[in-house]
Amino acid sequence: LKACSSLNIMNIIITGSVSSYGEESTLNIKDENSPYNPHYKYFCAKIFPSSMNFYRDTKAILTQKSIEFAKDNDLNLTAIEPAWVYGEREFNTGFYEYLKSVQQGIRFMPGNKFNKFHVIYAGDLAKAYFLAFEKKLKGVNRIIIGNPVPERMNMIHSVFCRAAGLKPPAPLPKFIAYPAGFIFELVAAILRKAKPPLISRSRINMMYDNIEYSTEKAKIQLGFTAETPLEEGIFKTVQWYKTNGFLE
After folding, report:
1. Phi and psi of 68, rounded to 5°?
2. In the 3-class helix/strand/coil scheme, how is the chain assigned residue by residue?
3. For the segment 22-46, what is each residue's pLDDT rounded down to a tens digit?
4. Which residues pair with 29 in a beta bridge?
5. Which sign does the torsion angle of CA 24, 205, 239, 151 carry?
6. Cβ-contact 224, 145 below 8 angstroms
7. Bridge partners, 11 (sequence order)
8. CA distance 24 to 202
9. pLDDT reported for residue 181
10. By CB count within 10 A, which of 31, 97, 144, 220 is most buried?
11. Cα 91 to the chain's mean position, in Å?
12. CA 10, CA 139: separation in Å to the nearest integer?
């Protein structure tokens, strides 16, 4: 931002995250006017912090500091805040690891059949960035990008499994899954693993929490609506994983 300001570049797009608004289970639909609430309360968090909170907290700080700088220096700043991304080349939001686990023979996974979750296909997200580039919105704007309607997480995972020719695993109750996630995460921390374990407190909670956002602002300010049907986007994603040797 300092470099842009010094070179008189006035229109800037940055990437934030819906996690700045919090990812706790709630029936409230969050939007760009919702308060910052990135820090999730985990079991034993005071003596054993969750690495996912570091991610959420830094995303919130990034957005806050960027907005302050933009206002102080009269910059036009658009913060694109994506929901959970899936698509070709995406490996970090959990869907690929979920598929790999099922392919390796895991028949039970954390989750239930009721919590809703917000996702966005990578190709649609790219269109949102391009629209933000074209529009050159004035002032400071935070814009949530996601599918218009959240889907049940269990259904999303089931579609991924079907696209890969796999039988969806049966859901585990949280009282069984959470202690396992705590133990796996604790062991990884003790061993100073660079990569977080597949099963952790944060990922367990994600599988049961209801997390919904409004995408109306993106429609109004950018003219953006995600167009890729969920099953089509998931099919493209899985086929890319297979074509490139990431799935059998």
Report:
1. -60, -45
2. CHHHHHCCCCEEEEECCHHHHCCCCCCCEECCCCCCCCCCCCCCCCCCCCHHHHHHHHHHHHHHHHHHHHHHCCCEEEEEEECEEECCCCCCCCHHHHHHHHHCCCCEEECCCCCEECEEEHHHHHHHHHHHHHHCCCCEEEEEECCCCCEEHHHHHHHHHHHCCCCCCEEECHHHHHHHHHHHHHHHHHCCCCCCCCCCHHHHHHCCCCCEECCHHHHHHHCCCCCCCHHHHHHHHHHHHHHCCCCC
3. 999 999 999 999 999 999 999 888 8
4. 212
5. negative
6. yes
7. 76
8. 10
9. 92
10. 144
11. 12
12. 10
| Cα–Cα dist 218/199, whole Å | 33
In this predicted structure, what is the pLDDT of residue 231? 96
What gap in Å lies between CA 51 and CA 205, rounded to an integer?
Answer: 14
- C-alpha to C-alpha distance for 1 and 6, rounded to whole angstroms: 9
> Of 120, 125, 189, nearest to 150 (Cα)?
120
Q: Rounded to two decimals, what is the model's pTM?
A: 0.92
Give me the half-sphere count of Cα atoms (radius 13 Å) on the Cβ side of residue 86: 30
Could you report the per-residue pLDDT of 97-139, keeping only the tens digit for each?
Answer: 999 999 999 899 999 989 999 999 999 999 999 999 999 999 9
Distance between CA atoms of residues 232 and 49, nearest Å: 38
Pairing mode of beta strands 140-145, 76-82: parallel
pLDDT tens, residue by residue, 136-162: 999 999 999 999 999 999 999 999 999
Length of the chain: 248
Tokens of 101: 């686990």
Residue where the block lists tokens 């579609």: 159
